[in-house]
Amino acid sequence: MHRIYTFLLLVFSLFAIQGFGQTQDTLSFNADIGLTNNGISNVPNFSLNKPAITSYLSFTRGRFSFDPQIHFSTEFKPWQNSYWLHYKLIDQANFKMRTGTGLNFSYDYGSVITGGVQKSLITGHSYFNADLSAEYTVNKYLTISPIYLYGKGREKSGAGYLHYIALVTNFQNIDLGSQLKMAISPQIYHVLLDGLNGDFFSTNLALQSKQYPFSISAMMNTPIGHANTLAADFVWSLCLHWTIEKQFLFKK
């Protein structure tokens, strides 16, 4: 637990440093809260495979952002929690690059028999993560993003290491009339997990309201090629999203 406190102290310290020497600055808060029929992870071993509540949060100040991801089942049992600190290396109008580090916690569910009584068992695993990603904006309708993520497990009972490489294209702001717009985000990616590897194709289609902070999305994920050693099948999910965007101006 002390590692979490140390990490959070680092986050708040860096956010405070960002404000030194400025007469005013802005803290941006963004959130995407989702309710899905099927908790899917791009890494098959980390999927929940049952209904879940997802939350992607972001607190941005200057070039730093703190990006928690907190997911749990609809029974309010933990699924995955990630706490990321990112820094924008390049922040231009049509090209951005950022890197970051974080802590991830995932949970497995099983059962044990104690005194002849079967009891549920939750096993937690923790990981150190680091990533590097870029985003090139072709126009307001298309962005292209390469992503690399590395993960290192801290317990012998969980995964040892993870390499994740992806290429994501995002077709956005597709006008569907006065009320709706659409976004489609296909990606191909490679996963190497403790010597097991696989290639996958995933796509997400979202219908977004222009007037209200709600959207609905459909996701599908399937292995491709014949060299996959990760156990994975075609999976899909539907998700209802609620998005929040806030900005807070601080004057000195």
Write the layout of secondary structure elements.
Elements: H1 2-18, E1 24-36, E2 52-61, E3 64-73, E4 78-91, E5 95-114, E6 117-139, E7 142-153, E8 161-175, E9 180-193, E10 196-209, E11 214-224, E12 235-251
Antiparallel strand pairs: 1-2, 1-12, 2-3, 3-4, 4-5, 5-6, 6-7, 7-8, 8-9, 9-10, 10-11, 11-12
What order do the helices and strands follow? HEEEEEEEEEEEE
Percent helix among the residues?
under 10%
What is the CATH architecture descriptor?
Answer: Beta Barrel
Q: N-to-C terminal Cα separation, in Å?
A: 35 Å
Which regions have little confidence, pLDDT < 50, spanning 5+ residues? none
Please provide a written account of the structure.
This protein has one helix spanning 2-18; strands at 24-36, 52-61, 64-73, 78-91, 95-114, 117-139, 142-153, 161-175, 180-193, 196-209, 214-224, 235-251. With 252 residues, it is mainly beta. It has one domain (2-16, 33-243): Porin, CATH 2.40.160.40. Strands 1-2-3-4-5-6-7-8-9-10-11-12 form a twelve-stranded antiparallel barrel. A hairpin with a 4-residue loop joins strand 3 (64-73) and strand 4. The longest helix has 17 residues, at 2-18.
